[in-house]
Amino acid sequence: MKKLEIDWTRCDGHGLCGTLLPDDVWLDEWGFPVLRGREITRGELASARRAVLACPALALRLAATVNRDSKGSERTVPTSHQ
Amino acid sequence: MTILQETPTPLRAIGEPRLLAGLQDGRADLQRHLQTHGPLPELTRESYSELATAVGLRGRGGAAFPVALKLADLPARGIEAVVVNGSESEPVSRKDRLLLTMAPHLVLDGATGLARALKAPLVIVAVHDAAAAASVRTALLERQDGVEVQVADTPGRFVAGEARAVLSVLEGGPSVPPGRKVLPTRKGYHRRPTFLSNVDTFAQLAVLARLGSHEFSSTGLISEPGTQLLTIDGSVERPGVVETPTGTPLEALLRFAGASQGPVLVGGYHGKWLPNDSSRPETSGGAGIILALGTDTCPLGEAHRVAQWLASQSAGQCGPCVFGLAALVDDFERLLAGDPAGWHDAQRHLGLVPGRGACAHPDGSARFLVSALEVFDDDVRQHLAGGCGRPVRGVLPVPGGKW
Predict the structure, then answer these.
(1) Confidence tier at B338 by pLDDT (50, 70, 90)
(2) Which of chain A's ends, N or C, has fewer CB atoms near its CB within 10 Å?
(3) Are the C-beta atoms of residues B321 and B287 closer than 8 Å to each other?
(4) What is the dihedral of CA B347, B363, B402, B152, to 10 degrees?
(5) Measured in Å, how far apart are chain B's first and last C-alpha atoms?
(6) At residue B96, what are phi and psi to the nearest 5 degrees?
(7) Does the pLDDT at position A69 exceed 50?
(8) pLDDT band at residue B277, thresholds of 50, 70 and 90?
(9) ∠B251-B255-B261 over CA atoms, to 5°?
(10) pLDDT digits (tens, 9 = 90+) for B4-38
(11) What's the distance, Cα to Cα, between the start and end of chain A in Å?
(12) How many Å apart are CA B304 and CA B291, to the nearest integer?
């Protein structure tokens, strides 16, 4: 299964994703995308891919929801200070 | 504000000190270090993993990630470097620079011992503080480690202390977290597997390697035994760094530091406020910072000052962090002036900030402000009714220009 993901360092709030995928992305008051966070179903995959390609900042991505490493265990990605 | 001036940090201990042992008379050179702690036993990677698992050792930089998991995630060979993150960008925290300044050999023991066990050829100590860097460089002249040790200066901005931002700056890049969430254990220094942790964690490893898991667990919580370093500041008679067994009740610690009554901030400026009542928990985890506010300052005004600083510390990469934190500063300003719309806007903006950035700065900042609005509920009401009548004294230190 796939999920939308945003590289926030790239996103400049062009807002195309909000127009192309109104069910999955809405725009906040500054024009930046808010993801609904649900999984993209097989039927929606084509339009999601189109939105990813349309992003002028290359900030929108489709990522696999469960990242499995070689041992098959689920991986969590810590993002804060270590 | 003068709290952040570079005076020597007082150090004390509740119970038997481990990391701070032998430092009563000042910095421990190699001779005094060996007198206090004895030589570091040469352990294998497996022994380090077993020890870290047995005592449930967690990273002491704030994220509290289990060290054993970090070790397990490293590949069997080809580990590029062991990185000691000493950037200590939480403005109130002093524990890491205290360790580097006063007990550099303990930190270097932990880092080089682990590097040899992991067969990593390089140890990098990333420091922001000049005195700490000088202390480490002096200590290195006394030692023979069998691995290369480099000391690197990093910028002091809050977000620059984030693990991946440190790795970026070590490679000559900008001191900002990258957009892709990659683990240093997979792609760290030079995009190669790297063990990175906080200064305090390496000192704990050096103590753990000597004591073994049994003796290490003779104090503190069963779930996470040992001692912890806490920085205590704010409205207290005796500020400074304290070593305590894990799980020491917060009330005991506040009494020990001579804190005045009033709310307490735990975990620094990405942390949470605790109300002034008896249901407060034990102290553990987080970035090891305890700030007592006292009762004669306006809590919301203090939170507003910190919010301004947090907004100024955004790396400027991610829209929701840049615009969201700026909007929250404005919301708090209007709330302080008694405008109910400020409160409503703050609630909305606090929902729009977390989880929407390359690092945890927006999340942590929102956590701080959310808990301020919760805990200072009564003050919010007073401000909406015309003000709380207390001045903003600046009890919470906010760094000035050089950060």
Answers:
(1) very high
(2) N
(3) no
(4) 180
(5) 14
(6) -70, -45
(7) no
(8) low
(9) 80
(10) 444 567 889 998 999 999 998 889 999 999 999 99
(11) 30
(12) 16
Percentage of chain A surpassing pLDDT 70? 79
Bridge partners (DSSP) listed for residue B242: B12, B230
Residue pair A82/B198 in contact (Cβ under 8 Å)? The answer is yes
Question: B99 near B140, Cβ under 8 Å?
Answer: no
**What whole-number distance in Å separates Cα of residue A52 and Cα of residue A24?**
12
- Domains of chain B are 27-216 (3.40.50.11540), 227-292 (3.10.20.600), 299-384 (1.20.1440.230)
CA of A15, closest CA in chain B: separation in Å? Answer: 12
How many Å apart are CA B242 and CA B350, to the nearest integer?
33
* pLDDT value of residue B401: 42
Strand partners, B240: B232
Q: Which residues in chain A have Cβ-Cβ distances shorter than 8 Å to B319?
A: 8, 11-13, 30-32
**What tens digit of pLDDT does each residue of A4-39 get?**
999 999 999 999 999 999 999 999 999 999 998 888
A79–B356 C-beta distance less than 8 A: no
The phi, psi pair for A31, rounded to 5°, reads 90, 10
CB atoms within 10 A of CB B69: 16
Whether the CB-CB separation of B342 and B334 falls below 8 Å is answered with yes
ipTM over 0.85: no
Looking at beta carbons, which residues of chain B come within 8 Å of A7? 179-180, 358
| DSSP per position, B174-239 | -SS--SS---TTTS-GGGS-EEEEEHHHHHHHHHHHHHHHHHHTTSB-SSSBSEEEEEEEESBSS-
B320, B351 contact by CB (below 8 A)? no
- Average of per-residue pLDDT across B134-163: 90
Q: Which domains does chain A have, with CATH numbers?
A: 2-64 (3.30.70.20)
Tell me which H or E stretch contains B342. Answer: helix B340-352
Give chain A positions within 8 Å (CB) of B356.
6, 8, 32, 34
Task: Give the burial class of A70: count Cβ atoms within 10 A of its Cβ; 0-12 exposed, 13-18 middle, 19 or more buried.
Answer: exposed
- Sequential DSSP letters for A4-62: EEE-TTT-----HHHHH-TTTEEE-TTS-EEE--PPBPGGGHHHHHHHHHH-TTS-EEE
Interchain pair A80, B318: CB under 8 A = no
Q: Are strands B240-245 and B227-234 parallel, antiparallel or unpaired?
A: antiparallel
Structure tokens at B360: 């945890």
List CB contacts of B57: < 8 A, sequence separation 6 or more.
B51, B66, B67, B68, B201, B204, B205, B208, B224, B226
